[in-house]
Amino acid sequence: MSKTTGAALLASLITACPALAQPADLDVDETQSSIFLEITLDTPLGSQTDDDTAAIDGTVTLELDDYDNPTTVTLIDYNFTSGSLNFVFNYSFLGSVTASATGLSLGLPAGAMPASGPVDAQGMFTVDNVPNEVTGIVDVAGTGTIGALVGSSTVDLSTVAQDPISVSGSINVASDTITLNISVPLEGTDTDPATGVTVLFSGTASVVATGPVPAGECVADVNGDGMLTPTDFTAWINAFNNNLPGCDQNADAACTPTDFTAWINNFNAGCG
Questions:
Q1: 271: left (phi over 0), alpha (psi -120 to 50) or beta
Q2: Is residue 178 within 8 Å of residue 212, measured between CB atoms?
Q3: Residues 212, 215, 220, 224, Cα dihedral to 10°
Q4: Each residue of 113-128: pLDDT tens digit?
Q5: Confidence (pLDDT) at 216
Q6: Is the pLDDT of residue 142 over 90?
Q7: Which percentage of the chain shows pLDDT scores above 90?
Q8: CA dist., res. 66 & res. 71, Å (int)
Q9: What are the helix and strand counts (H, E) for the chain?
Q10: Using CA atoms, how far apart are residues 4 and 268, in angstroms rounded to an integer?
């Protein structure tokens, strides 16, 4: 039987199915990850600025189109939690205002679609329009004249409207380990119409996360188009004839006729 006839026969016996995603789960390195936040309190009695930093913990789930030479990264999920942040705004003889942020977290909202972006040859990438949800509680209290103006309040950040963000950074895969460095911008403003007090905040969450390259690579998808179809058999024949890596379907580090049977088994098992 010719190879062409064999491919046609195989095509009549199998149907296309998706080569499902192989997500990677990464853990945030708390010793290398932190949040920096600067807040400016702009009031009719003047403006004051303070900042604070705290460590970040959490997880990231992502997918690379190719874990050897990635050209696209997809953020599937992320959740970052930070320690408390404390701010003091001193207005001298007018008093002072303190603010504390606790239970802070950043993450992809429930039900949000994953977001993708291109990865260049150096591993640098930017993913735009990433849904982002910040949660936590901010308690504000004051003393003196400024305290009377600002008042005491508690703000639930989950109730504040939030826009999509751009996440940028780099990704490196070496020795079956993925290392992700990303920067998540934090910025916003809010004005109290009753007091004329405006709060402006800006900062960055800098995150380093690592994890293993996911097992279960879809070896049957020989042409790498993200689908299992009869064209993968043609691609396997080409790999066999030219001793290419895609030929080795049974992982014995050799390209032999037994890889044909292994490819059929891999195809029938699917990817997921």
A1: beta
A2: yes
A3: -20
A4: 899 999 999 999 999 9
A5: 59
A6: yes
A7: 50
A8: 7
A9: 4, 15
A10: 21
- Rounded Cα distance between 180 and 194, Å, is 44
CA dihedral in degrees (146, 152, 153, 154; nearest 10)?
110
- Does the predicted model carry a pTM greater than 0.85? no
DSSP3 helix / strand / coil % (the chain, rounded to 5)? 20, 50, 30
Residue ranges per structural domain of the chain: 3-19+218-269, 24-212
184: enclosing H helix or E strand: strand 177-192
Backbone angles phi and psi of 224, in degrees to 5: 65, 30
Is residue 91 within 8 Å of 39, Cβ to Cβ?
Answer: no
Which residues, other chains included, contact 148 with Cβ-Cβ below 8 Å and sequence gap of 6+? 95, 142
What residue type is assigned to position 104 of the chain? Answer: L
User: How far apart, in whole angstroms, are the C-alpha atoms of residue 164 and residue 156?
Assistant: 19
- Is residue 76 left, alpha or beta, with left meaning phi > 0 and alpha meaning psi from -120 to 50? alpha
